[in-house]
Design goal:
One of its GO terms (molecular function) is ATP binding. The protein has 24 helices and 18 strands. The chain is α/β, with parallel strands linked by helices. It starts with a strand and ends in a 12-residue tail after the last helix.
Length: about 800
């Protein structure tokens, strides 16, 4: 049957017109008719081999050919499904869950599209990790004629939009996992929607893209909490879906332990489909020097572990370009701290084969969802922790399957010294080869401690890198080690691998045997040896040049100041009713600015714009005001520091004065103590006061005067006999003892200098004697102790001399 029929139509002028009627493959159900349409529309050199259709029933063959025709038409003759894409689609069509393990750049997006093209109404949900990935997927799906929408925290809250979602106006919804369940204490709007049967009854398929995020981000691992636990909650999401809804996982890297986690959380187990890039080379050289100024850059991508490193590297290498090429956008930074407009602008230019940007410095945000066909190289700068993440980044290049490209891993030398002996010879047999070699981690664990066993093994081994990566992924197929370029990797001494073919210019090398450092051409690494003094000087220079960031304690204050500025700027915006404040300055940019200082990073408005990756238009509108806010903040901090320093100096002075006063007081007390102790010692040996009888409680009034000692008598008076103790009165049951009070203990008028007591007993007054007898009576009645009596008489508590 032909793909179109020709009819003769009589017009008013009796002219014969040939009209072509395109057949709708969705209405064809017979195998013979579908084969005829398939062969008439799909060129012979692009059809799948006949042997591919043999295992399938007539019904599935019709569905498979239908999907081929629909895709071919939607792409205007550019795309035809590959075998694994069609296999995954037919697996869903037969009511099975499927697991697609396909290398990056192999076309996983079509695995999302084909089921939607085949379905008669209904929707598909795609769980996607990053906003950047969502945007790219939605753009591609819309281009192929499928209505799609990205749902994340930035999605509009307009009622009309959500009514359209609920009425299934979109064929594919690309959703972040945080929108599927409770997140940060509340239920997102989409999570509430999928709890209602009137919406879930329209869901046909769920595709979990980049499913390895379940393992690396959704579960607690190695002593650290999951940093995106919503990925680990997909089990609960599946349980809420009707049983007829089938799931499909897609990922570029699924070694055995990760596949086990995915299957556990998605509640299925299915055949693993292999797909790899045979035109990709692997290599792990030592760190290299910058590109020569006269070299025309090939298009490439360089991955960094931190935003700061990404920005600093792009800025440094831009300065290494010829002056005519600097600040032209040839080398750019790309990370999550930059605005959405900037990222879209840069990525559009980078995708363009004739674009200005030739080298893009990126972070983890670019490891998924970035499809650039003409990359010549990808560099991983700095050791990664896990093998899947490393392969995910390396898969950015070689995506056209034709051009020769290279994946370069640049690692720290310390990775060579990691001890792996306790893990045995076959680390790939471990339950989790990506476990940190140091054991469980904490938030304060150092970078070296976080390196996984698998990555350390790859760096330390001399075995073929492609073979090691195949073992890590559990890939034992016959094509696992296949490559189509000139070289496999740089670990085959006989294959004449040349760095110069990919990286012209000079590099730094360290000779493994001698640890000497050389600087030379890529193909002659050990040309010029760098002396130790030069290396040490360079190291010290690097240490001195290391930028200092704003102290952590000051960052919240600057964040608050910038948020207040953003609010005021938004209030003044003429279109604030439809423009969110984050369009002016998003939270990530505020966080970035809170770390950067004017002295080290933001020397000008241009530096601020570059650090945030903003456009010239944004710079002219907002950068100057933001820069002024930061200047005012640092001026306030400086003024507060000066004030705090002055107050601290004043406190130190007062403290010193208080210490001096305390020392003087203690010295004075010590002097007084010594005088009193000396007085007590002399009192033991000196003259005694005449005994004073203690009157009974019922007796008459006691004498008001003490007898004077014999030594106090007049010179002419005869010496008085020694005083005898009084005889006990017959009217008392027991006699009270006489009290002999040392005269030196009795309070007397102070000496003229105030620090000594008079030793004369002639000045003892009647009042003092009465006081002594009163205190002694209280001692007898056990109202006070002798020590307390001593205190009242002026002696220290730790001196208890015998008074009687």
């Amino acid at each position: 049957m032909a793909s179109s029929s020709e009819m003769d139509v009589d017009t008013a002028q009796d002219t014969v017109v040939v009209a072509a009627v395109t057949l709708d493959p969705k209405k064809i159900t017979k195998l013979d008719e579908m084969k005829a349409l398939y062969c008439s529309e799909i060129p012979a050199d692009r059809r799948l081999p006949e042997a591919f259709w043999t295992p399938y029933t007539a019904k599935l063959t019709v569905q498979g050919m239908r999907s081929c025709i629909l895709l071919y038409r939607a792409s205007e003759g550019k795309l035809v499904p590959r075998q694994f894409q069609l296999e995954s689609t037919l697996a869903l069509a037969t009511g099975k869950d499927s697991e697609v393990d396909a290398g990056t750049g192999s076309g996983k997006t079509l695995c999302l599209l084909l089921p939607a093209l085949l379905s008669q109404g209904g929707i598909s949900i795609v769980v996607s990790p990053l906003k950047q990935t969502q945007e790219a997927q939605v753009e591609e799906l819309i281009r192929l004629g499928v209505s799609a929408l990205a749902i994340n925290e930035d999605t509009s809250k307009e009622p009309e939009l959500w009514q359209a979602i609920e009425k299934c106006k979109f064929n594919i919804l690309v959703v972040q996992p945080e929108q599927l369940s409770m997140h940060q204490g509340h239920w997102p709007k989409f999570a509430r929607m999928i709890r209602k049967n009137r919406f879930t009854k329209h869901i046909n398929y769920v595709h979990v893209d980049e499913a390895h995020f379940i393992h690396i981000a959704g579960i607690n691992r190695h002593g650290l909490n999951a940093f995106r636990p919503a990925w680990g909650n997909l089990t609960q999401f599946r349980l809420k879906m009707p049983k007829r809804v089938h799931f499909q996982s897609l990922s570029g890297t699924q070694p055995a332990h990760i596949k086990k986690t995915i299957r556990k959380h998605l509640l299925f187990e299915e055949k693993k489909l292999h797909c790899r890039l045979d035109n990709l080379h692997f290599t792990t050289p030592d760190p290299s020097a910058p590109w020569p100024d006269d070299y025309q850059l090939e298009k490439g991508m360089i991955f960094h572990q931190t935003i700061e490193g990404c920005t600093a590297a792009a800025k440094h290498l831009n300065q290494r370009l010829p002056s005519s090429m600097q600040e032209k956008g040839v080398i750019r930074a790309f990370h999550a701290g930059m605005s959405k407009d900037y990222r879209e602008q840069v990525m559009k230019d980078f995708r363009d084969p004739d674009g200005v940007c030739r080298q893009l410095h990126v972070t983890e945000i670019a490891s998924t969802g970035i499809d650039i066909r003409d990359l010549a190289y990808v560099v991983q700068y700095g050791m990664t922790n896990e093998v899947p993440g490393t392969l995910q980044r390396g898969g950015r290049c070689g995506r056209d399957g034709v051009s020769e490209c290279i994946f370069l891993i640049m690692h720290e030398l310390s990775a060579k010294n990691i001890d792996l002996s306790r893990f045995g010879n076959d680390v790939w047999a471990l339950d989790d080869p990506d476990q940190p070699h140091s054991g469980n981690l904490t938030d304060k664990s150092k970078k070296e401690q976080r390196i996984g066993v698998g990555m350390a093994k790859i760096v330390q081994s001399t075995v073929c890198l492609r073979e090691l990566f195949a073992k890590a992924n559990g890939d034992t197929t016959e094509n696992a080690l296949k490559y189509t370029g000139r070289f496999c990797c740089n670990r085959h001494p006989g294959n004449s691998f040349r760095f110069g073919a990919f990286f012209p210019g000079k590099m730094l090398y360290q000779q493994p045997e001698t640890h000497k450092v050389f600087y030379g051409d890529a193909d002659e690494p050990y040309g010029t040896e760098l002396k130790a003094a030069t290396i040490a000087a360079d190291s010290e220079s690097l240490k001195r040049a290391r930028p200092k960031y704003r102290p952590t304690v000051l960052r919240p204050s600057l964040v608050h100041k910038l948020e207040r500025w953003r609010y005021n700027a938004w209030r003044a915006h003429p279109l604030r009713s439809i423009t969110p404040a984050s369009f002016i300055l998003n939270d990530s940019s505020i966080e970035t600015l809170s770390k950067l200082t004017l002295d080290e990073h933001l020397l000008s408005v241009d530096d601020l714009t570059t650090a945030l990756g903003q456009t010239t238009t944004w710079k002219n509108k907002y950068a100057h005001a933001i820069f002024k806010e930061i200047q005012l903040f640092e001026a306030e901090v400086l003024a507060l520091n000066i004030k705090a320093k002055a107050e601290e100096e004043e406190r130190q002075k007062r403290r010193k004065l208080e210490i001096d006063q305390e020392m003087f007081r203690k010295a004075d007390e010590e002097a007084r103590r010594r005088v009193r102790e000396a007085a007590l010692e002399r009192a033991k040996l000196g003259p005694k006061v005449a005994p004073v009888p203690v009157q009974p409680a019922s007796g008459t009034r006691r004498s008001a005067r003490l007898a004077k000692p014999a030594a106090a008598a007049s010179d002419t008076a005869p010496a008085a006999p020694a005083a005898q103790p009084p005889v006990a009165s017959s009217s008392t049951a027991t006699a009270a003892p006489s009290v002999y009070v040392p005269a030196r203990l009795l309070p007397t008028a102070p000496h003229a200098h105030g620090n000594a007591f008079s030793s004369s007993t002639q000045d003892v007054t009647q009042t003092a004697a009465e006081r002594v007898q009163s205190l002694f009576r209280r001692v007898q009645n056990k109202e006070i102790t002798l020590d307390e009596m001593h205190k009242l008489l002026g002696a220290h508590t730790y001196t208890t001399p015998t008074l009687f």
